[in-house]
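Priority: medium. Attachment 1 of 2:
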């Protein structure tokens, strides 16, 4: 993890330095507001994002945003019961699911301006905010034998590694099962990235944001059985977004 964070730091430090350029006068008639959102893909999960940006100078926009995404442990691997042919997939050893709700504040700094309609605008992006983690226990469908009728049935039970084994796990229960047993974990969220606007129309935003992000919680998060619990969850991400510019 430390090695990954060092690599990310050295990749983005030149961009951060380059972004510290003097502000320029805001030209007349410039589109001042942006609203955009889309899909987030990361190395430890996926989610959705929504962002609003307002121009402060010719090179800088303030940004407000919100994203929701799941956070997976790197040791999660889908398994299937080999006894029952119609069994569903599940993640053996997974104790809890973690969903991160991230309200944040940040900024966009213009690095390279689009000089023609089919050109590419490049912005440096930074953001900081909260990471409110929803920790929900995992429930599984467990195959059991009814001694009265000598038939098998599926029972939905909270995963307990002491009694649930690959031989008697039929598959995952519905995700919402166990939501009443969920708890919230407070934490912090940080990200830096580079946004590539490839739209061919002045009023349209269409592009991809590539960068690194990190969720930091104030307590260890138990995600997997017999796996070291973590406070910190770094990842690389790609935001595929579409939106609109306004005056």
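Attachment 2 of 2:
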């Amino acid at each position: 993890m430390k090695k990954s964070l060092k690599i990310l730091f050295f990749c983005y430090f030149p961009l951060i330095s380059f972004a510290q350029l003097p502000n320029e006068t805001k030209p007349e008639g410039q589109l001042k507001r942006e609203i955009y959102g889309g899909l987030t893909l990361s190395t430890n999960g996926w989610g959705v994002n929504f962002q609003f940006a307002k121009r402060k100078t010719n090179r800088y926009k303030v940004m407000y945003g919100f994203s929701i995404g799941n956070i997976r442990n790197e040791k999660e691997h889908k398994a299937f019961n080999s006894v029952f042919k119609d069994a569903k997939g599940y993640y053996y050893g997974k104790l809890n699911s973690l969903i991160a709700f991230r309200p944040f504040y940040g900024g966009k700094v213009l690095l390279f301006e689009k000089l023609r309609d089919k050109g590419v605008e490049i912005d440096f992006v930074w953001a900081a905010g909260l990471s409110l983690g929803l920790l929900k226990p995992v429930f599984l469908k467990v195959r059991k034998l009814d001694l009265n009728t000598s038939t098998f049935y599926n029972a939905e039970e909270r995963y307990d590694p002491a009694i649930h084994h690959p031989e008697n796990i039929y598959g995952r229960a519905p995700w919402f099962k166990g939501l009443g047993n969920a708890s919230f974990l407070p934490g912090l969220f940080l990200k830096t990235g580079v946004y590539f606007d490839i739209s061919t129309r002045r009023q349209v935003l269409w592009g991809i944001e590539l960068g690194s992000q990190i969720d930091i919680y104030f307590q260890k998060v138990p995600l997997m059985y017999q796996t070291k619990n973590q406070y910190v969850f770094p990842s690389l991400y790609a935001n595929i977004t579409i939106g609109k510019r306004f005056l």
